[in-house]
Amino acid sequence: MEEKSPSTRERILDAAIEVFASKGYHDTRMDDIVEMSHSSKGSIYFHFPSKEEIFFGIVDKFANLLEKRLLQVLETESSGIERVHRALVVCLDTFGSHQALAKILLIQAVGLGQDFEVKREQIKDRFAALIQSQIEQAVIEGEIPALDAEMAAQIWMGAIYDIVMRWVSTSQLSPERMLPTLQTMLLRSIGVSDEKIEQICR
Amino acid sequence: MEEKSPSTRERILDAAIEVFASKGYHDTRMDDIVEMSHSSKGSIYFHFPSKEEIFFGIVDKFANLLEKRLLQVLETESSGIERVHRALVVCLDTFGSHQALAKILLIQAVGLGQDFEVKREQIKDRFAALIQSQIEQAVIEGEIPALDAEMAAQIWMGAIYDIVMRWVSTSQLSPERMLPTLQTMLLRSIGVSDEKIEQICR
User: Fold this and answer.
1) Can you give the pTM of this predicted structure?
2) Distances from the Cα of B43 to the Cαs of A189, B6, B18, in angstroms?
3) Which of B124, B184, B186, B192 would you mutate first to test chain A, the one with the most A CBs within 10 A?
4) How many Å lie between the alpha carbon of A151 and the closest alpha carbon of chain B?
5) N or C: which end of chain A has fewer CB within 10 A?
6) Which residues lie closer than 8 Å to A186 by C-beta, 6 or more apart?
């Protein structure tokens, strides 16, 4: 019996992640993915008309995973600042447990040009919007002083993206080193006191 | 009389900036730059073996200009935190007064792939090192509490780069909107109090 469409799609994406990780995006041929996924050529081209579409499929899969984990955290925690703290941990944790994948998404994407840039900006905007809503909530709850939450979210997004990028592309940083400084600086930047930060992050 | 080599080089770069700005990097041919710069083909190829080399020449020219302006500010101001404030103003000011150029460097560079990524990281590292030394100085001078200055500088660099990128690539932001929030957040992030920030930035 033919598997249902979603899981065939997933199997192709998982196979592609493996092939991209071992051969690199540019040296991977569609045939390699056909072979690794034990799918037919027709099935692959039905789901993804090109290698680039597969790449974008992986990007979406990872972004969706990260968003799902973040939303879970943001629903459960009570204080706005605590949610922000937990969200950062989840973010680094998700990149940390998918480092090969993150490397493919952030590094190998370089050669994909304008299409990927547009996609990347869309995803950054999506997460910036998530950050913005949390910052706005913390202002409403009286935890931090009023500020330009949209700008603040973009500044956070830039800082987080750049640090994660540096982390997955070099071996200079570790989550153990990144997390305390990143958290302290980001929370301070929106006006959380050092006492409160210590209380939340310990 | 033939002009001296440095100014021929400069003339070529200035002409290239104009051509890139009007035609876009990808649609510019070396002949367009020959024509615009009133140089000979031989002279251009003597200075720059390829269009990519011209692009990198422009990148260096802009990075050098920004660095020169920053170093001037960093030499003159007394307090570490004041220097940081002035440096941010200079940074946004330099991008603001060369917005067409900044757009070429940040946006059109996308298609250049790995070579440009390496170059971009080198330049970001250079400016991050400059930021790091200022933050370390502010710690030594007792203005801010001790922190991981290397991480802090990378976080700042990521935040600044991303905001400037967004500013030059969209029309959503203005320096008037960016500067107050960016400054407040960055200074807070390294432990400067809101009273002190108000005092410096007003």
Assistant:
1) 0.85
2) 51, 12, 18
3) B184
4) 7
5) N
6) A84, A88, A156, A159, A160, B189
